[in-house]
Design a protein that fits this description.
Chain B: This is Sm domain-containing protein. Chain B: Pfam families: LSM (PF01423). Chain B: One of its GO terms (cellular component) is NatC complex. Chain B: It comes from Salpingoeca rosetta (strain ATCC 50818 / BSB-021). The complex is a heterodimer of chains A (about 675) and B (about 120). With about 675 residues, chain A is mainly alpha-helical. Chain A has a domain of about 170 residues. Chain A has 24 helices and seven strands. In chain A, the strands form two sheets. Chain A has a two-stranded antiparallel sheet. In chain A, α6 crosses α7 and α23 runs antiparallel to α24. The longest helix of chain A has about 40 residues. Chain A is globular, with a radius of gyration of 31 Å. In chain B, strands 4-3-2-1-5 form a five-stranded antiparallel beta sheet, with no helix packed on it. Chain B folds into two domains: about 90 residues, SH3 type barrels; about 30 residues. In chain B, β2 and β3 form a beta hairpin. Chain B has about 120 residues and is of the alpha+beta class. Classes of the chains: A mainly alpha (about 675), B alpha+beta (about 120). Chains A and B meet through β1, α1, β2 and β3 of A and α1, β2, β3, β4 and β5 of B.
Chain lengths: ~675, ~120
């Protein structure tokens, strides 16, 4: 133990007197040592940092410091309510509950409030937070990075049941001034919707009531104006941003966002719109419809809460969307796609029944995983898709076994129906994987040539498979029509046959997925040709940095595809040889071919838009069409205006991020 | 304060056992190794204590009044978060020895530099 002499004043004066940049240093301390020093009060390095610097640590502290509990003016009530909705939106956006909704002192125990209306409001808010957590935990389709479910063991209004709070809010809002009543109504509708969702399995008209509650909620949010962005002293004293510092782990606090009340209400409204769209899931009857639905939903930019609600609706009562039998849906999908007899309704296999049921089981799991991916956020969708390829390989292997057994084939073939169906699913997942890579702008300019070439490779496989299946289906239908015609006779029979034929012709139109695959194929083709043409003119996108080996990048980028059998894993050598095949064409020819391919893509998208507006969001299709048309014009004029200009061509993504536009400037 | 005087005062503290009060209430004790114009301090062999926040007027707490000792090694304390600085009135013997060795090494190093410089000039 020793005594200490305080030298603070002299020390600080001495430091200030030093010239800027000069260090007074012990020669034993090297630069290498100094770089290893822990910087105190830096949350990224200092685990012992005390973040709880506030004088207010508990609700009791706040009350002792004069936290208001009564005599709130209307402006103060509105300010508090707006702030709570703001915090709720921040929580929904992935911030920690301990840093958002639970920073309001009244949430710690609303019973301290003597203002009855606010007490009821905060009790409702506690139930809302609890219900949100329950739904998100049940869905388990979000991770900590986009939604934090922990409520740190707070008492979420255990003293008053959900229904009683709902009734209290309903009774209170009728007696309040308009602006306060409006916010109470919003909370009431949010709680009603939650209540319906939490129990819609149990009550017969739960879905109708939930949809009704959502409509009310949407209408309420549409007319709500954020009235109190004014600074309110009482509101500020009620919110202690660091109050829950001791709840959080001794890791750096995540910095939370700051949004205005107006933005918070807009965010909540967007979530509601996504959930309302998500309710269309209940109108899906087939696996194909479910895929179309989730393809659209995945691109809505839904938040974690909306995604959880929709995911929970999908996996309900061990059925898909509450009523679709998963195994049956898979069988129907295969049968409708290529008419494979062993998948026909009511078919009882005489051999290989176990293999067939194993295939269906894996297919169900595969489809559920694929759908669950659509309920993830965009970057994770891509990461998860990379893992789906492993189960696609298992699916393909089982499909091959079933095909060999049931067709009595000597050796497996990718053209057998079930193997082709499994390959088709892998191709669709692969295209989605590549598209997400483009949307997330994960690729350098010099990499895009290989990405588009690979996209062409996968889309080409998909088209081949779809064409073969469609041919099989048409041949089967024609054979059936011929046999019916041969068996029939007389006027009445002819009339019936005519009707049947018409019906079959109507059913046998190429599927939507075929048209879209055609468009992707045309897009990928066009970009590949355009980039090779630019290369011919010495204006290709900048080459990779000298230390980057394109072969390694290629193998790394497309590593997930190594798991699937169809399409065959493409190697860098194959890519190089295919690009070398274009050597005999000059730049003009390549640009002309690229312009034609872009024109074809635009026309495919246009046809797709008119025939099947439900499969993809209209705005996305419009954006794709715009990009295709613009690139077509660029390629058409490229050879005249392009050759003399210096610099390299750039592929720029527009705000839509769907596909890049070619920039010649 | 003149530049040279400041430099001399700070150099006098190098290698000594010091305590630094941090703005979040911690006290960090270690061997003073480096400082700059912004009062950013580097301490080696540092330990931190959590205790009641100290203010300028209070005396430094005794060792047995401090709680939760934790060795943290080499640390840099940003000048903005330095609330107090204190130096041990009686330095531990091992630090004094180390200081003496360091001074002697420095002398040897300086002599070597001078010799090399002379040789260079002669050449």
């Amino acid at each position: 133990m020793c005594d200490w002499e305080d030298v603070t004043g002299a020390f600080k004066r001495s430091c200030a007197a030093l010239p800027l940049g000069e260090l007074v240093r012990d020669p034993r301390l090297s630069l290498h040592d100094a770089l290893q020093a822990i910087e105190l009060i830096d949350p990224r390095m200092d685990a012992g940092m005390d973040v709880n610097l506030t004088a207010v640590n508990t609700l009791q502290d706040a009350l002792d410091n004069g936290l208001k509990v009564d005599d709130f003016s209307e402006a103060e009530q509105i300010g508090l309510m707006d702030q709570m909705f703001n915090l709720l939106a921040l929580w929904y956006r992935g911030n920690n509950a301990g840093q958002t909704v639970l920073t309001c002192m009244y949430m710690h125990d609303p019973r301290v409030l003597k203002c009855k209306e606010l007490q009821i409001f905060f009790e409702g808010m506690l139930h809302l937070v609890q219900a949100t957590q329950t739904i998100c935990l049940q869905a388990s389709c979000c991770e900590e990075e986009d939604f934090v479910t922990s409520l740190y063991g707070f008492d979420m209004c255990s003293w008053k049941p959900f229904a009683a709070v709902l009734a209290d809010i309903n009774a209170t809002m009728k007696t309040q001034p308009e602006n306060v009543a409006h916010r109470m109504r919003l909370l009431f509708h949010l709680l009603s919707a939650m209540q319906q969702y939490l129990k819609f399995n149990a009550i017969p008209n739960g879905l109708r009531m939930a949809t009704h509650a959502l409509s009310d909620l949407d209408a309420c949010l549409a007319t709500l104006e954020a009235g109190a962005d004014v600074s309110s002293g009482e509101r500020d004293s009620a919110l202690q941003p660091t109050i829950n510092g001791h709840l959080l782990a001794a890791t750096p606090l995540r910095e939370i966002e700051s949004i205005t009340t107006q933005q918070a209400y807009e965010y909540l409204r967007h979530e509601i719109v996504c959930i309302k769209t998500g309710m269309h899931i209940f109108s899906c009857r087939t696996l194909h419809a479910l895929h179309q639905f989730f393809g659209r939903f995945a691109r809505m930019g839904a938040g974690a809460f909306a995604r959880s609600v929709v995911h929970r609706c999908f996996l309900n009562k061990n059925k898909w969307a509450g009523k679709i039998d998963p195994g049956q849906a898979v069988r129907e999908d295969v049968y409708n796609w290529c008419g494979y007899a062993i998948m026909a309704p009511g078919y009882k296999p005489t051999r290989g029944a176990e293999q067939l049921s194993a295939f269906v089981g894996v297919a169900v799991e595969f489809e559920e995983n694929t759908v669950a991916i659509a309920c993830q956020n965009c970057p994770r969708q891509r990461r998860r898709l990379a893992k789906v390829f492993t189960s696609a390989a298992t699916l393909s292997s089982l499909a091959t076994q079933v095909d060999v057994t049931h067709l009595g084939a000597e050796k497996p073939s990718q053209h057998h129906p079930l193997t082709a169906w499994a390959g088709r699913r892998a191709c669709i997942a692969g295209l989605e994987f590549l598209m997400l890579g483009l949307e997330l702008q994960l690729h350098a300019q010099w990499e895009l040539l290989s990405v588009f070439w690979y996209m062409r490779h996968v889309a080409g496989w998909l088209l081949t498979i779809e064409t073969r299946a469609f041919t099989q289906l048409r041949e089967a239908a024609e054979a059936q029509a011929a046999s019916t015609s041969a068996a029939g006779g007389g006027g009445a029979a002819k009339k019936k046959k005519g009707k049947g034929k018409q019906k079959k012709q109507k059913q046998l139109e190429p599927p939507d997925s075929w048209r879209l695959a055609d468009a992707w194929s045309a897009f990928a083709d066009a970009y590949t040709l355009a980039l090779v043409a630019c290369d011919r003119l010495g204006r290709a996108p900048p080459p990779p940095p000298p230390l980057v080996d394109p072969r390694i990048v290629f193998e790394h980028r497309f590593a997930p595809f190594q798991d699937v059998v169809i399409p065959y894993p493409a190697s860098y050598d194959l890519f190089c040889s295919k690009i070398a095949d274009l050597d005999h064409l000059n730049a003009d020819e390549l640009f002309e071919m690229a312009a034609n391919a872009f024109g074809k893509a635009a026309s495919d998208i246009s046809t797709f838009k008119t025939r099947s507006s439900e499969a993809e969001p209209q705005s996305r299709l419009d954006a794709l069409q715009r990009v295709a048309q613009r690139n077509k014009i660029v390629c058409t004029i490229a050879t005249k205006s392009f050759a003399d200009k210096p610099g390299s061509v750039v592929l720029k993504f527009t705000d839509d991020k769907v596909m890049p536009v070619i920039d010649l400037s | 304060m003149a530049e040279e005087e400041a430099r001399s005062m700070l150099k006098g503290l190098l290698g000594k056992l010091v305590r630094v009060g941090v703005s979040d209430g911690r006290i960090v004790q270690g061997v003073f190794s480096c400082v700059d114009n912004g009062c950013n301090i580097v301490l080696t062999h540092a330990n931190e204590w959590k205790g009641p926040p100290i203010t300028g007027a209070d005396a430094w707490p005794k060792d047995d009044e401090l709680e939760f000792r934790r060795p943290i090694g080499l640390v840099m304390i940003p000048g903005d978060h330095v609330s107090r600085v204190g130096v041990a009135a009686q330095q531990p013997q091992h630090l004094l020895d180390a200081q003496a060795r360091s001074n002697s090494d420095e002398d040897v190093s300086q002599q070597l530099q001078e010799t090399l410089s002379l040789q260079g000039n002669a050449a």
